[in-house]
């Protein structure tokens, strides 16, 4: 290995030692040089054989203007081309300007002109007549057959060489993509896993993984198993065979695996689930066998398979109807290698997915994946730690409050928070600031949540007024409902596809009651209710609101069992077994009852929103007019118009109690 690395550093030359110890430079021969040499030879022949090209003319011109003046020395007929070449006398060449323009001189050999003869017998008769008419002129007539030597050979060989070149080029590319290395396509069944051994410089460690204390502890324990196995085995325990990281996208599953590779002093194989599947049948199973073969040779080690749902989907539930599914064959081989007759002592399997519900039950059982580590969206405290990690490389202003930013980003994943920090830095740079300030972070959050501001969009006065009253309806209804999310600000500046938007600060609840869901549905329908009460007509602007309300109502009836007529029934299948089912788990009569209950819930919430706006019509109009004037209003403006929310003090008091309880614990 050391010799190979040394040869690469010395510019691609090998230095085998000789008698006196001095190396001899031996250049490596690359196959592509052959193509370059061949191209150079062909081009060279073309240029070396280049000469002045004859000028095309006609038989009449030759007979009347050249032969009559005695300028023609010889006419050579090329029979296989139907062409006659005219050779002039050396002292007559400079009389013709078209020849001089072509580069001909008195010393330049012919042919100088050429013309098409037509039928040979006719031309021979006409030439004989022309020669008899000019007895004093001696013009030789010769017949010959001529072939373009290199040109003919090249015209035959070029298509063959082109096909060979294309075949070799694409064959190498395919073999490199399907197996690579020596042997090309014959290595298609080899594992594509990246190996990180001891001493590999991986910069990510557990210090870079903020939050997720419980999940990080589980992963750290696996590293501890490999570093100090005696600590656990002396009590009779066994090292876990596998751990599955499960959670929403962007929560840090792959980042945790990178940290594990950086912390563990054992070989680490990293591979994606899609790397097992290729266009050839049996390749996936072959790569699984080769992967575990390499892992057993380097045990103890860790195998990490990212996005394992690409091959771990439950058998028999695939949407395609193939009788021999390549993914199923790959999964069967993976199940056998993880826990079959052969032992895999010292090989720990780590996998990540955000679709654990579709994985095969045989893959999830103990003995294969002994642990399922759930990596959830970060809570408030976790978001503070994540912000601190991503704010380290930034030049942050003194007004930036990390706990405040964490409160402004409920439901954000770690990847979202990283995006917020990066967007804030870009916004500050766009404004030529020396540091990233608090407002830059708020603008970044607004951009990620609502989209980019589009102030150049032309909106008519009537439409702008309708948008203002629509958004004011949302703000007014949500402000006057107990369980609605607290409002932060309202804007009628277009963002993305939305013509207006309202920002709320969702309360981080673990469970949600029926009353809270009804209040949220009522606030969502406040915009449509405001349009009908104010203008006496409705518009398409409430399409997104209606979609949210309808989905929430169906969830309340069919998932959460919050309907009196349907009862305490849930038709939601968390296992994913009915994803591809063609029938509903209820009768047609029940379906009609569900539709009726959903309609009642939505209509009741809509009537309630209209009643609230009717009762506070004047305050709603004030909010809308203020919104038309400023385009953006905040919660302080609503408090001044609608009064302080009576539930705000209770919410603050409950939050203080929660902080005190956490401090006592």
Descriptive account of the structure:
The chain is of the alpha/beta class and 665 residues long. It contains 25 helices and 16 strands. Helix 14 crosses helix 16 (414-430), helix 19 runs antiparallel to helix 21 and helix 19 packs across helix 22 (588-615). It is elongated and about 130 Å long. Residues 1-26, 177-186 and 650-665 have low confidence and may be disordered.
Concise synopsis of the structure shown:
The chain has 25 helices and 16 strands. With 665 residues, it is an alpha/beta fold.
Any key phrases for this structure?
disordered N terminus, 16 strands, disordered C terminus, single chain, 665 residues, 48% helix, six-stranded mixed β-sheet, alpha/beta
Topology (elements, then pairings):
Elements: H1 2-9, E1 13-14, E2 26-27, H2 32-48, E3 55-56, H3 59-67, E4 72-78, E5 83-88, H4 97-101, E6 113-116, H5 120-133, E7 140-144, H6 149-178, E8 194-196, H7 213-227, H8 230-233, E9 242-246, H9 253-263, E10 268-272, H10 283-297, E11 301-306, H11 309-312, H12 326-338, E12 347-353, H13 361-364, E13 371-374, H14 380-391, H15 402-407, H16 414-430, H17 438-450, H18 461-480, E14 487-491, E15 501-504, H19 514-524, H20 526-535, H21 543-558, H22 588-615, H23 617-630, E16 632-634, H24 635-642, H25 648-664
Helix pairs in contact: 7-9, 10-12, 14-16, 16-17, 18-19, 18-20, 18-23, 19-21, 19-22, 20-22, 21-22
